[in-house]
Design goal:
Length: 295
């Protein structure tokens, strides 16, 4: 019987250069989507999937993330109580209680493999999840829960997959060369990073979430730095595949992918969530209708 996965790593140590100057003093993971920061959506997905411990790997100027998931200070509590805003107080108190939050400072080379390796001391000899702090999938059931089902049945590592409908967008993602296993599950033969559309092995992109074995740490430790002197998680996963270790991709069902890592996609995300928000959607729709978009 597969041991239940209870730990998730959220890398959040990047500089957020695409959003400068906004991210000069504010983590990009804290950019708001209406009234919640991006990283809260990621944490909520993890918790809804059964995660108990969330390890956030941070860097300089990331204290706002820790403050957000901490219990609210007494001045804020007093202000909300005196304003009879009990529902809002309950909502913000629940943020700190949703999971056990552990914070680690990233050490070593840059690259998306380094924060994963930095989390090794708090990962016992067990499988764990990795979710990026600037993108998420809104799905029912949650993306990570769907991946856990695949892991429970087939074991091994699991990566979340999304079909890329526009051929020209294939070069933005790592695209998997696969062979069918069952239903929405495919065995990954290799991952081609940002291929030209004509050379893409499929339209199934490896996006945003991983279930990984502890063996990945040794591979990351031995990896030679690549472009820009960085350590890359996809390269480590490719090495894992070469050893014969089973790595499957789970095509996420009933989901919508939101990439908040660049300005245009971030703004699309904010607009989409504003159009669904019960408190503001009617006013926001009226505002959009009032715009002279042809001007």
């Amino acid at each position: 019987m597969t041991k239940k996965i209870t730990k998730a790593v959220i890398p959040a140590a990047g500089f957020g250069t695409r959003f400068l100057p906004q991210t000069k003093a504010m983590p990009k993971e804290m950019l708001p989507v209406v009234d919640k920061p991006v990283i809260q959506y990621v944490a909520e997905e993890a918790v809804a999937s059964g995660i108990k411990d969330i390890i956030i790997v941070t860097g300089a100027l990331k204290r706002a993330i820790e403050d957000h998931f901490d219990f609210p200070n007494q001045d804020l509590i007093k202000n909300l109580r005196e304003g009879h805003k009990d529902k809002l107080l309950e909502e913000i108190e629940a943020i700190s209680e949703m999971a056990n939050f552990i914070y680690i400072r990233q050490k070593g080379l840059y690259g998306n493999g380094t924060p994963v390796l930095s989390a090794e001391p708090v990962i016992d000899d067990e499988f764990f999840a990795v979710l990026w702090g600037d993108e998420f999938i809104y799905s029912d059931p949650p993306r990570l829960a769907q991946m856990m089902e695949v892991h429970d049945k087939y074991g091994g590592a699991v990566i979340s997959g999304v079909r890329i409908e526009k051929k020209e967008d294939l070069k933005r993602y790592g695209i998997a060369e696969v062979e069918p296993v069952e239903g929405k599950v495919y065995k990954i033969k290799k991952i081609v990073e940002k291929p030209e559309p004509s050379n893409a092995p499929s339209n199934l992109a490896t996006i945003g979430a991983y279930i990984l074995p502890p063996e990945i740490f040794d591979i990351l430790r031995k990896q030679q730095p690549g472009t820009g002197g960085e350590i890359y998680l996809p390269e480590a996963i490719d090495e894992l595949i070469k050893t014969g270790y089973p790595v499957n991709i789970c095509e996420i069902e009933n989901g919508r992918y939101f990439d908040t890592g660049n300005k245009v996609e971030y703004m699309k995300t904010v607009v989409e969530f504003a159009l669904k928000h019960p408190d503001i959607k009617d006013q926001f729709i009226a505002f959009l209708k009032s715009l002279d978009l042809d001007a």
